[in-house]
Design a protein that fits this description.
Elements (H helix, E strand, L loop, with lengths): L1 H31 L6 H23 L4 H26 L9 H23 L14 E4 L8 E4 H23 L1 H11 L1 H6 L4 H27 L13 H7 L4 H21 L1 H4 L3 H16 L14
Antiparallel strand pairs: 1-2
Length: 309
C-alpha cells in the first residue's frame, strides 16, 4: 500500500506540472480561438530570460543575496514576457482576425521558431541553471503508518505546490475579477463581447500576458529540474494529451486532465511496465488522448458540438 501511495503522489505532482503548461494552451484558445503551438517556445524563452538575468544581476550590480537576485530575475523575465505577448498581438494576431484556423496555427508555428532563434541570439545556446532554492533531497514520510514509509521528492513537492497556487490564483482571477469575466465573455462569443463594449484586442493582449506568466513559472520549475536547454520546448508536447483529455476550452479540464495523465503514466510504468518491457510512460498519454479523440473528441469538460442540417 505504501509503494502504491508513493507512486500515486509522484503521479499527482507530475500531473500538476503538466496542468500548468496545458493552461497556457487553454487560456489562449479560450480567448482567441488560436491553438498556440508557440507555448513550448514561450516556456523556453521565459526560462532563458530568468536564468540569464539571475546570472547577469550579481555580475553587474554586485548583489549576492540569492533570494533578491531570483526575485529581480523573475520580475525582469515577467516584464520580458509581457513585451513578447504585446508584440505577438500587435504585430501578428491583430492582422489575422477572422482568418482560417490553419492560418492562425501556421502563425503560431512561425512565432515558435522566431522565439527559438531570437532566444538563442539574445541569451546564448548553452545549458543554463536556474537555482530557486528548491531542495532536491528526498524525504521519507508516514513511517508510522507504512513499513519503510513513503519516499517523497521534495523538489517535485515544492514544484507541485507552486503550480497548484498559480492554478488557484488563475481560477480566482477568471471567476472574481472584472477582467476575468470579460475574458470569459470573449471566449463564449467574440462578436457579442464586442457589442457590449469589451475591447477584443486589449483582452487578447491580457490573455497572452497571462499565458506568458504561466510559461515563465513553468519554465522556472522545469528549468530548475532539468536545466535550461533548447530541448525544453518539447516539454509542451507532454501537455498536448492533457489538453485533448480535459478539453481545449476548460481550465478545470486542464487541471483534471494533467492529474489523470500524471497518475496514469506513473502507475502504468510501475505496475504494467515490467510485463511489457517498460517504456509505457513515454506513450501512455498519447494513446489515452487517441482514445478520447475517437470516442469523445471534445474532452472531459469541453462543450459537445452538435451540427444541425
Amino acid at each position: 500500500m505504501g509503494f502504491f501511495l508513493e507512486t500515486l503522489l509522484g503521479g499527482l505532482m507530475a500531473g500538476m506540472l503538466y496542468s500548468l503548461i496545458a493552461l497556457g494552451f487553454v487560456l489562449i484558445y479560450k480567448a482567441s480561438g488560436v491553438f498556440n503551438f508557440a507555448q513550448g517556445a514561450m516556456v523556453l524563452f521565459a526560462a532563458l530570460a530568468m536564468a540569464r538575468f539571475a546570472e547577469w544581476l550579481p555580475m553587474y550590480t554586485g548583489l549576492d543575496n540569492k533570494f533578491v537576485v531570483n526575485l529581480l530575475a523573475f520580475v525582469g523575465a515577467g516584464a520580458v514576457m509581457f513585451v513578447v505577448a504585446w508584440l505577438i498581438e500587435r504585430l501578428a494576431l491583430r492582422h489575422l482576425v477572422n482568418q482560417e484556423g490553419t492560418t492562425l496555427l501556421m502563425a503560431t508555428l512561425g512565432i515558435s521558431y522566431f522565439l527559438d532563434g531570437i532566444g538563442q541570439t539574445i541569451f546564448g545556446s548553452d545549458v543554463y541553471k536556474i537555482d530557486i532554492g528548491m531542495p532536491k533531497d528526498p524525504i521519507i514520510a508516514f513511517e508510522s503508518l507504512f513499513e519503510g514509509g513513503i519516499l517523497i521528492n521534495k523538489e517535485d513537492l515544492y514544484a507541485a505546490v507552486i503550480a497548484a497556487v498559480l492554478v488557484g490564483l488563475l481560477t480566482l482571477f477568471f471567476q472574481k475579477t472584472v477582467t476575468g469575466r470579460a475574458l470569459r465573455a470573449v471566449a463564449d462569443d467574440h462578436q457579442a463581447a464586442q457589442s457590449i463594449g469589451i475591447p477584443l484586442n486589449r483582452i487578447w493582449v491580457i490573455v497572452w500576458c497571462v499565458a506568458g506568466v504561466v510559461a515563465l513559472v513553468a519554465g522556472m520549475i522545469w528549468g530548475s529540474k532539468l536545466g535550461v536547454q533548447f530541448s525544453l520546448t518539447t516539454v509542451a508536447l507532454r501537455a498536448l494529451p492533457v489538453v485533448i483529455l480535459g478539453g481545449l476550452t476548460s481550465v478545470p479540464g486542464a487541471i483534471v486532465g494533467g492529474l489523470i495523465i500524471g497518475v496514469g503514466e506513473k502507475l502504468s510504468e510501475v505496475f504494467l511496465g515490467p510485463y511489457v518491457g517498460g517504456g509505457i510512460e513515454i506513450w501512455f498519454a498519447y494513446v489515452l488522448a487517441l482514445v478520447f479523440l475517437l470516442f469523445r473528441p471534445q474532452g472531459l469538460f469541453g462543450e459537445k458540438i452538435i451540427d444541425r442540417v
